[in-house]
Amino acid sequence: MSRVVLEDLRVRYPREEGLAVKGVHLKIDEEFVLILGRSGSGKSTLGKVISGVIPHVERAEVEGRVEVLGADPAKEHPPSLSRKVTYVAQSPYDQIFSETVLDEVLFVLENIDVKDLDIGKKCLKLVGLEGSENRRSEELSGGQLQKLAVACALALGSEVIILDEPLAHLEPRSSKELMKVLTELRSMGKTVILIEHRLREVIPFHSLIDRVIILDRGMVVSTVHGRELHKKVLLLANLGIRLPANFRASILLKQEMRSPMDLSPLEKVLLSADPVRTDISDGDMILKVDRVWASYVGRRYVLKDISLELSSGRVYVVMGPNASGKTTLLRVISGFLRPKRGKIIALGRIIRSVSDSSGLMGYVPQNADLVLMFETVRKELEERAVRNRCPYNVNNLAKKLLVSDLMDKNPHSLSRGQRFRVALAASLALNPKILLLDEPTTGQDEECIEALGGVLREFVSSGGTAVVTTHDPDFAFNYADSCIVIKDGEVRSQGSPGDVLSEDDLVLELNLAKPMVLSTCQKLGLPPITELELFGSVIPDEDTAEPSS
Amino acid sequence: MKIQLNPAAKLLILISFNLLAITFDKLENLILLTLLAVLVYVAGRPDISRIKTTALVILPPAWGVIISQSLFYQGWPRTVLLTLVPPEIPVLGWMTGGIYLYYQGLIYGAEQSLRLVTVVLVGLTVAWTTGEGSMLKTLRRSLDNPKLSISISIGVRFFRTMADEIRSVYAVFKLSGFKLTRYRDTVRFAVPLVAQVIRRSYMISLTLFSRGFSPTSRSGTGRTRPSAVTLLSIVFLLLSITLALMKVLTTLFLLDVLYIPPLKPVYFWVLNNI
Question: What is the ipTM of this complex?
Answer without folding.
Answer: 0.81
